[in-house]
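Budget justification aside, the reviewers requested a transparent look at the raw inputs and outputs of the sequence design task funded under Objective 1. We therefore reproduce one unedited record. The lines immediately below are the structure tokens for a 78-residue chain.
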């Protein structure tokens, strides 16, 4: 994956974004908000991308505790 968010043809990102407040340390370092994007393949979420503006910061496994929390926030927001 490249920083510009290009995804393989079999994957696509969900255009719904969940924004979660950054911690104090992240806020001091970062001027742009952190957002999370779900990557789907064949109808299921395969990854969650943490983005700072247009920059890909890290990939979160949706099966991890953090991934489950992010997905739960998305479901309650909808």
């Amino acid at each position: 994956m490249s920083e510009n968010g290009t995804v393989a043809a079999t994957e696509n990102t969900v255009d719904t974004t969940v924004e979660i407040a950054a911690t104090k340390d992240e806020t001091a370092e970062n001027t742009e908000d952190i957002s999370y994007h779900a990557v789907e393949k064949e109808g299921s979420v395969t990854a969650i991308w943490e983005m700072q503006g247009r920059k890909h910061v890290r990939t979160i496994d949706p099966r991890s505790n953090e991934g489950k929390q992010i997905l739960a926030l998305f479901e309650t927001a909808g």
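The chain has two helices and four strands. Residues 65-77 form the longest helix (13 residues). Computational costs for records of this kind are itemized in the attached budget.
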